[in-house]
Amino acid sequence: MKKFDYSLNYDELDLRKHPELYTVGRGEQGVLMVEPYKGEILPHWRFKTPEIATESSEKIYELFLEYKKKGDFVGMDMARKFLQMGYTRARRYTNHKGGRKYSKEDDSILPYQNDKLKAEAAAIFKAQWEIAKTDPDYVKMKKEHREKYESEQA
Predict the structure, then answer these.
(1) 16-21: long-range contacts at Cβ-Cβ below 8 A with a sequence spacing of 24 or more?
(2) Cα(31)–Cα(83) distance, integer angstroms
(3) CA quadruple 121, 125, 126, 127: dihedral positive or negative?
(4) What is the dihedral angle through the alpha carbons of 94, 122, 27, 111, rounded to the nearest 10 degrees?
(5) pLDDT bracket for residue 135 (50, 70, 90)
(6) N-to-C CA span, the chain
(7) Which among 30, 40, 127 is positioned nearest to 83, based on CA atoms?
(8) pLDDT tens, residue by residue, 68-93
């Protein structure tokens, strides 16, 4: 698998116009860089409470479906990444109040907590993320994108 290319000038690059430059990478790589998708999805990304997480994850999944309808794999993958990031960030806040995992003093892991509301928010995002990442059209388009643009010789 080709690694996400952090060397591109994402501030200037429109990956809707240049999907051939997009690399899926691992997990959430590039989620806060790839435009115009970051600008379209980020304003809807919230996880403070289960209610907010529900509204947010549903809106992001709607965007996923809109991108799908347009045949826009990069948009679909970016929406998938935001759903995944909703899960991972809410889990971090579940375990560590304020979201800080490591101590500023010595980089040791701070004590774990269990914020039930954040855990519920994380579960909401995880459910939507699972639906998106297993969508048959998404899986097919991801494979096609990787074969067409992400081979090592590309």
Answers:
(1) 16/72, 16/74, 16/75, 19/72, 19/73, 19/74, 19/145, 19/149, 20/148, 20/149, 21/149
(2) 10
(3) positive
(4) 10
(5) very high
(6) 12
(7) 127
(8) 999 999 999 999 999 999 999 999 88
* Residue indicated by tokens 């928010």: 121
Q: Is 21 in contact with 40 (CB distance < 8 Å)? A: no
Residue with tokens 């994380």: 122
| Residues comprising the chain, all counted | 154
Which residue bears the tokens 């790839």? Answer: 34
Q: What is the pLDDT of residues 33-67, one digit of tens each?
A: 999 999 999 999 999 999 999 999 999 999 999 99
The token duo for 28 is 């959430």
